[in-house]
Design goal:
The complex is a heterodimer of chains A (279) and B (556).
Chain A lengths: L28 H14 L7 E5 L14 E4 L5 H11 L4 E7 H7 L1 H10 L3 E7 L36 H8 L3 E6 L3 H13 L3 E7 L12 H4 L1 E2 L8 H10 L4 E7 L25
Parallel strand pairs in A: 1-2, 1-3, 3-4, 4-6, 5-6, 7-8
Antiparallel strand pairs in A: 5-8
Chain B lengths: L1 H12 L3 E8 L8 E8 L12 E4 L5 H4 L10 E4 L8 H4 L4 E4 L2 H6 L6 H13 L3 H13 L3 H19 L17 E5 H11 L2 E6 L6 H13 L3 E4 L3 H13 L3 E6 L1 H17 L3 E7 L16 H6 L8 E3 L6 H16 L2 E7 H4 L2 E5 L46 E3 L13 H16 L8 E4 L4 E5 L3 H14 L4 E6 L1 E3 L3 H7 L5 E6 L5 H9 L7 E4 L8 H12 L1
Parallel strand pairs in B: 3-4, 4-5, 7-8, 7-9, 9-10, 10-12, 11-12, 16-17, 16-19, 19-20
Antiparallel strand pairs in B: 1-2, 1-13, 6-13, 11-18, 15-17
Classes of the chains: A alpha/beta (279), B alpha/beta (556).
């Protein structure tokens, strides 16, 4: 594990740690982990120059399961931590990963501002439309009438589900895609494209929770690859996103905004700053 | 305010030291405001009990300031009769009231303004020559607006000439020659400069009164030295962006005030648990809640020391003068980087937003340096949270091969793997406490001045008033020792015990209704005697006379 150097090439397995995941058997997140590490390897990245940053939740455990640099931070704050890291260290590949509760509920404000700030990083949300770690509460993406859990109010929340992709587009994200954990190779390709694309790339990956949302096993029959050309036109992308049923996978929008941040370049010595205060 | 800043510049030019605070209401722009200036031939770190001169250009909203503008029968009130009668609150002080027809005098000068008449008059009354004034006017106006410059110079001269006939003025002692370089700085800009001197190259912050000038300074200064500034969407983002940047190897800082600090406490806990260096400058204002945003209080002490959940040892330091905001922030960065934890720099509104003329501060050698990790031998696992004797574990910089680890707020083993074992928890708790307790903080833990039977223990902006009170008491034959704590947490039991040797009485001075500092000292230290407490709330500043009166009664 410690044998990383600058000339070696790395396979997907080199990006995995030997920490055993806490995930339930059959959880979609195992496949997402494989897609991420495959994408890292396919891009020729090096574990010590790559980082995975997360918040709190089932899927947010992912940094410990990779052999990259990583931060398992606090609930909802993954994007803030990840943007700070990338702005301080533009040379690193930064991926931020987590779940729908972490990203869209407690972390919702950071999601909006990360989209519009457009820092060059990739944000993966493993969406299973439920809080798994706390045993089955509805999340922002849960269907309004879902009440199959004792943790959900009878009849469901009655609230319109959050539409992460449409909100990402409206907020200024530069790359928007949907993947499915049941298609690890296709998802790995999408992730690799997302990492390559400048600015803020958002990839929603439908990843079933077979413990609290058993019906999501059926996603393998409903998720479909759309194989359409990604549009650079936000209006066309909006139409695409607002008319889809949530099961279309692929790269749905590819913007051309330059990434946030200026080159770090010192023009003054620290002692030059004294001048402003000297009488 | 413009005229007041020019006045200060001219006083500095003439060789005086100064402290300049401002008072304004909650208006967004314009409206009534008061400039509170104290000048002297020695460095000034405190407001006085009363003002010698009050110059009122008008009386608009003056009731709001009444308590902040204490006068005595020795004071002079200069006012324009055309602005109406002097309010009763000032008549009652017995101050001498003199009339200066600022409006009329200004009218005689093309483009003339009453504030320039006022500026000339005050300068004349206290003995600042017209030369430095015109020089200052030249610096700010000559290039841009020659006509405004001419009008201003004429106004200042007319004001000075008129004031010469008023009589009864208090003239300052002649200023000493400027033998060393002098600086003009606010505490908030000073904190920003200290941060950069200490090695900070990343700041994410969200605007909040009275801390905004820290981010204002860093937003323009950081890029010049190759650093990054981000205006975050909120304080949650501020602190967490700083943690990400710090993990990446850059010393990071954010600044805020009480409400923002409340939002940051979860992030501070992550800094402690994951051992990620970060500095937060808290410019304290009056709380709780939104409180009084533009005024000073020292009532964030409890949240600073005790606000984090769990057992979360961290650093709390406090500057004790406007100039010391530079040093203490720099030192705070050095400590956070050395000890891989959160450091709160507890400034306050009276320090942060006051402008002072000071001797140029020394550029001290505290630049944050982390204990850098080396890659483990082949086949060995890197231990990010290694249980070292000092408690400080080597910390890698991402990009370094072989040291990949996950920084975690979950309790963890020495390698960083999450663990719920009690043995791991105890080991890491011990380690995180040990590194703070055993560190050598040198003699910067406190500012200690004088000797005496009485010790005055204080912190932050109360220090200046306490210093002046101790000096007055000495003139009365009462000897007191001033101890101003710069290192609030962790405690230094032996150091304070040594400093209190021979002391038979203790007075604790602070600006908190609950006496938070007194309680902290009594709870954390074995004091040799039960201290007396002079603690009261903001927003009025602690004045030397209050402390002096208490010292007189204690010295009987």
């Amino acid at each position: 594990m410690s044998s990383c150097d600058s000339t070696a090439t790395y396979a997907a397995k080199d990006f995995k740690s030997d920490v055993k995941p806490v995930w339930c058997p059959g959880c979609g997140d195992y496949a997402v982990l494989s897609s991420i590490t495959k994408a890292f390897a396919d891009l020729g990245l090096k574990p010590h120059e790559t980082s995975v940053v997360s918040g709190i939740g089932c899927s947010s455990r992912i940094p410990a399961y990779t052999n990259t640099y990583g931060i398992h931070s606090i609930h909802g704050r993954a994007l803030a931590v990840g943007q700070g890291l990338k702005l301080a260290r533009p040379d690193l590949t930064v991926m931020v990963a987590g779940g729908d509760g972490d990203g869209f509920s407690i972390g919702g404000n950071h999601f909006l501002h990360a989209c519009r700030r457009n820092v060059d990083l990739t944000y993966i949300v493993m969406d299973n439309r439920v809080y798994g770690m706390t045993k089955g509460q509805p999340s922002p993406t849960t269907e309004s009438d879902w009440d199959a859990s004792a943790m959900a109010p009878p009849g469901g929340t009655g609230m319109t589900p959050f539409h992460p992709l449409a909100i990402a587009l409206a907020s200024g994200a530069n790359f928007i895609a949907r993947g499915f954990s049941g298609d690890p190779n296709g998802t790995a390709q999408i992730i690799a494209e997302a990492i390559r694309h400048p600015g803020f790339s958002f990839v929603a990956i439908m990843s079933p929770c077979i413990t609290f949302r058993e019906e999501q096993r059926d996603w393998k029959n409903t998720m479909r690859n759309v194989n359409i050309e990604p549009t650079t036109d936000p209006a066309q992308a909006a139409r695409r996103l607002m008319t889809d049923d949530g099961f279309n996978c692929g790269i749905l929008y590819r913007g051309n905004r330059p990434a946030y941040g200026k080159e770090k370049k010192a023009t003054n010595a620290v002692s030059d700053l004294d001048r402003e205060f000297t009488l | 305010m413009t005229a007041a800043n020019m006045f200060l510049d001219a006083a500095a030019e003439a060789g005086y030291y100064a402290l300049f605070g401002r008072s304004s209401g909650p208006q967004i722009r314009g409206g009534e405001a008061a400039a509170l200036v104290r000048l002297g031939v020695e460095p000034i770190t405190s407001v006085d009990d009363t003002f010698d001169i009050m110059l009122a250009i008008d009386w608009q909203g003056v009731q709001r300031f009444a308590a902040e503008l204490p006068l005595s029968k020795n004071s002079i009130v200069i006012c324009d009769p055309s602005a109406g009668d002097v309010p009763d609150v000032y008549v009652k002080t017995g101050a001498k009231i003199v009339h200066l027809h600022m409006k009329d005098l200004a009218k005689e000068i093309p483009g003339g303004r009453p504030n320039m008449i006022a500026l000339g008059a005050v300068a004349e009354l206290i003995g600042i020559p017209v030369g430095p004034l015109t020089e200052v006017l030249g610096k700010s106006l000559k290039k841009k607006r020659a006509d405004a410059y001419e009008a201003s110079v004429a106004g200042v001269k007319a004001g000075a000439a008129a004031a010469a006939t008023l009589g009864g003025a208090k003239r300052l002692a002649a200023a000493k020659a400027k033998d060393a370089k002098r600086w003009t700085v606010t505490g908030n800009y000073g904190a920003g400069l200290g941060a950069i001197r200490g090695g900070v190259r990343f700041c994410a912050a969200y605007p909040i009164t009275p801390a905004t000038e820290v981010l204002e300074y860093l937003a323009s200064a950081l890029p010049k030295v190759g650093g990054v500034f981000v205006q975050a969407e909120d304080e949650l983002a501020s602190i967490n962006m700083c943690l990400g940047a710090s993990y990446g190897g850059e010393a990071s800082i954010t600044s805020t005030a009480g409400p923002g600090l409340s939002l940051m406490t979860e992030g501070l806990g992550l800094a402690v648990a994951s051992e990620t260096p970060v500095v937060v400058v808290d410019v304290q204002r009056v709380g709780p809640s939104t409180g009084i945003a533009t005024k000073c209080e020292q009532s964030d002490l409890n949240i600073a020391v005790y606000g984090l959940h769990g057992d979360a040892p961290h650093l709390v330091v406090a500057p004790n003068s406007v100039g010391d905001c530079i040093f203490t922030t720099q030192w705070g960065v050095y400590l956070a980087e050395s000890l891989q934890t959160a450091c709160l720099v507890m400034s306050d509104q009276a320090l942060g937003q006051s402008r002072a003329i000071i001797d140029a501060p020394a550029d001290v050698a505290f630049v944050g340096k982390r204990l850098v990790a080396e890659a483990p031998a082949e086949g060995e696992v890197f231990k990010r949270y290694a249980n070292t004797a000092s408690g400080i574990s080597p910390m890698p910089v991402p990009g370094q091969p072989g040291c990949q680890y996950t920084s975690d707020g979950l309790e963890h083993t020495e390698t960083g793997t999450p663990s719920s074992q009690s043995s791991d928890h105890t080991l890491q708790l011990d380690k995180r406490q040990r590194k703070l307790t055993n560190f050598d903080y040198g003699n910067h833990w406190a500012t200690i001045e004088g000797e005496g039977d009485i010790a005055v223990i204080t912190w932050g902006s109360c220090t200046g008033a306490a210093r002046e009170a101790v000096a007055r008491a000495k003139a009365d034959g009462i000897n007191a020792k001033l101890i101003s704590l710069r290192l609030i947490s962790p405690i230094r039991p032996q150091h304070l015990a040594d400093a209190l040797k021979g002391v038979s009485k203790i007075l604790v001075v602070e600006q908190s209704h609950q006496g938070q500092f007194t309680r902290y000292l009594r709870g954390e230290y074995d004091l040799p005697v039960k201290p007396e407490s002079l603690s009261r709330s903001g927003p009025l500043p602690m004045r030397p006379g209050e402390i002096h009166a208490r010292l007189l009664s204690m010295g009987k």
